[in-house]
Amino acid sequence: MNAPLDLVPDSERRGLIGALPAGLRPFASLMRLDRPIGTWLLFWPCAWSVALAGVWGQWSLFGWFLLGAFAMRSAGCVYNDLVDRKLDAQVERTRLRPLASGRVSVRSAWLLIGLLCAAGLVVLLQLPLVAQLVALGSVVLVAAYPFMKRITWWPQAWLGLVFSWGALVGWPAVTGALGTPALWLYVGTVAWVVGYDTLYAIQDKEDDALVGVRSSARRLGRHAALGVGLFYAMALLLWGAALWSVRPEWLALLALAPAALHLAGQVLRADPDNGELALQLFRSNRTTGLLVFLAMLVVGLSVEP
């Protein structure tokens, strides 16, 4: 039976999701199929780590990690909506999500998570044992994330721990061991995630305050742009340390200049009272990911294996 029209969001009536059969649209919406930004943001740290490690001819890893990022980001979205379905029903922006509106059952959502995790397992099996073990280490962090906004003002920091994990996986996927550059890369990426997710949280400040959800955007208030700038600066310093640990030359650090300029532009434009602009700036981190990837690839390929 079709859902009442007032329960179906516009996003399911147009574009990629709207082109699907009606019965699949709520599941595609659960997976955020129309918003691939999350997949890119999860993929880039994996790609950076592989690139910085020098690739060593294992170019197929980029494809495997992209598939894994899509599957696990989609599974994470479904899991997050499961945990938050009652909370989402109270917020105007999220009340029409498939679980919050009752258009998808809890059982069906768990089955979808199982299918997506199976796809993730296929990717995991392509990696060396050390990389597999490191990847599995993120499971507890992922499971705990949806609850963080209820107990801390900095759920963005926890998201950073989760979304940056690929930086720890990519390096051993190439080298077979976890190295110091990957650790620098990981910590720097955590800072980057806190910065861009603070931008994302600006659009939800009012709704979050109404339902008692905490966020870095609410905590920083009028100083949100400054806070984002500080986290971005920290990310650049730590990414620089990762590059230096692979190639200790000042010229190598210049590879980060385009990314630094792009991030500075975000900070200069950020407005803690303009949610629409904040969302645009958040999405522009796709470009940040590409610029950092090019920096890591240039330096990684410049070192003899």
What is this entry, summarized?
This protein is 70% helix and 0% strand. The chain has 17 helices and no strands.
Question: Would you give an account of this structure?
Answer:
- By secondary structure, the protein is mainly α.
- It has helices at residues 15-18, 25-30, 37-52, 60-88, 106-124, 129-136, 139-148, 155-163, 166-175, 180-202, 205-211, 216-220, 224-246, 250-253, 257-269, 275-283, 285-301.
- The protein has 17 helices and no strands.
- The mean pLDDT is 93.
Give short descriptive properties of this protein.
305 residues, mainly alpha
Structural class: mainly alpha
Shape: globular
How many strand segments? 0
Which regions contain 5 or more consecutive residues with pLDDT less than 50? none
Mean pLDDT value = 93
Distance between the termini: 59 Å
List the helices and strands and how they pair.
Elements: H1 15-18, H2 25-30, H3 37-52, H4 60-88, H5 106-124, H6 129-136, H7 139-148, H8 155-163, H9 166-175, H10 180-202, H11 205-211, H12 216-220, H13 224-246, H14 250-253, H15 257-269, H16 275-283, H17 285-301
Helix pairs in contact: 3-4, 3-9, 3-10, 3-17, 4-5, 4-7, 6-9, 7-8, 8-10, 9-10, 10-13, 10-16, 13-15, 15-17
